[in-house]
Design a protein that fits this description.
The chain has 362 residues and is an alpha/beta fold. The protein is built from 13 helices and seven strands. Helix content is 42%, strand content 9%. Strand 6, helix 10 and strand 7 form a beta-alpha-beta unit.
């Protein structure tokens, strides 16, 4: 699971992007300048840890709120996969576009959506990022070029190809990043999108979050060939298999892929091998996985691994960790409080964005 060994056909390493350097999500939110690709420091590691903890604690609160019937509908938790969202988003800039899945809370928070806007959307309130109409599976923020989740497996892939094509036709420098699960490999949309992206040399980053299960079906029970990076490489694009439980490995691989895309070498594919610690959704009894398997993956928890790395290399102590946790807890407490107090959408607005407005008569 190395980020440094491509499985695609041999190509020269991509040249650095020609356009000027732009700020990343981390820089925009916290004023931290990230290190060059392949190198990091203690301050940057702390930002990565904070990003993953924000997602984890947000989702744990969502479990409590769902159990209390404060949040309704379907909820798909991202717990265990935080390194993917945080690591990939560190390689992206505000000019890039992101297309997500129905397991999207982590992607949204890592992209820069506030916990307040996401929590209000979970509550179905008018102040939510989608106006309370999307809920857990349909977070959206056009200002941040976060083009939401889709309840359809592989449904975001054609949309992402269209966004990448549109940006190129308009002469924009952005790349489009599309997250999807291993289950998407069983859908025609993935293969159609991969083929067209390679054929048209689109600036598209395909990020497969391989958590080994498409709902309740194990990958090996559905696919004769489980090396997804190798299968993606057959479309003529660079493809890597990466340890998706190591946020630094994810960031390094994503930066390398994005640099290649910006240099004009076409679409890139990352297979990030990760694992969800919770069931497919809050409705799922999770009877298809062995408990010992879950515990083995929990021993590789990306938050725990980075925390230990920070302790060993960068002097992270218990007091600082408590401070980070307290800051995130206050942020989430505030998000819940504002969501509780936020207004519902007025009944008279329920047809807005559903039917066209009648033209005014003069």
């Amino acid at each position: 699971m190395s980020a440094a060994r491509p499985t695609a056909r041999s190509r020269k390493d991509p040249a650095p992007p020609k356009h000027g350097r732009r700020t990343t999500v981390t820089e925009r939110r916290r004023g931290v300048v990230p290190p060059p690709a392949g190198r990091t420091d203690g301050g940057h590691r702390r930002d990565l840890l904070e990003g993953m903890l924000r997602i984890r604690r947000f989702e744990e609160r969502c479990v409590e709120l769902y159990s209390a019937a404060k949040i309704r509908g379907f909820v798909h938790l991202y717990i265990g996969e935080e390194a993917v969202a945080v690591g990939v988003n560190e390689a992206l800039t505000p000019e890039d576009a992101v297309v997500s899945t129905y397991r999207e809370h982590g992607h949204a928070l890592a992209r820069g959506l506030t916990a307040e806007a996401v929590m209000a959307e979970m509550y179905g309130k008018a102040t939510g990022c989608s106006g309370g109409r999307g809920g857990s599976m349909h977070l959206f923020d056009a200002h941040r070029r976060f083009y939401g989740g889709s309840a359809i497996v592989a449904g975001g892939l054609p949309l992402a190809a269209g966004l990448a094509l549109a940006d190129r036709m308009r002469g924009l420098p952005g790349a489009t990043c599309c997250f999807f699960g291993d289950g998407a490999f069983a859908e025609g949309e993935f293969h159609e999108t991969a083929n067209l992206a390679a054929l048209w040399n689109l600036p598209l980053l395909l990020v497969c979050e391989n958590n080994l299960y498409a709902m309740g079906t194990a990958l090996a029970r559905e696919h004769a060939q489980t090396d997804l990076a190798m299968r993606a490489a057959s479309y003529g694009m660079p493809a890597w298999t990466v340890d998706g439980m190591d946020v630094e490995a994810v960031e390094q691989a994503a930066r390398r892929a994005v640099e290649g895309i910006r240099a004009g070498t076409g679409p890139h594919f990352l297979e990030l091998r990760t694992y969800r610690f919770r069931a497919h959704s809050m409705y799922d009894p999770d009877r298809y996985r062995d408990k010992a398997e879950i515990e083995r993956w929990k021993s590789r928890d990306p938050i725990g691994r980075l925390t230990e790395r920070l302790r060993d290399r960068d002097g992270l102590d218990d007091d600082e960790l408590v401070r980070i946790e307290r800051q995130i807890a206050e942020e989430i407490d505030h998000a819940v409080e504002t969501a509780e107090q936020a207004p519902e959408e007025p009944v008279e607005d329920l047809l807005r964005h559903v039917t066209s407005e009648r033209p005014s008569r003069k």
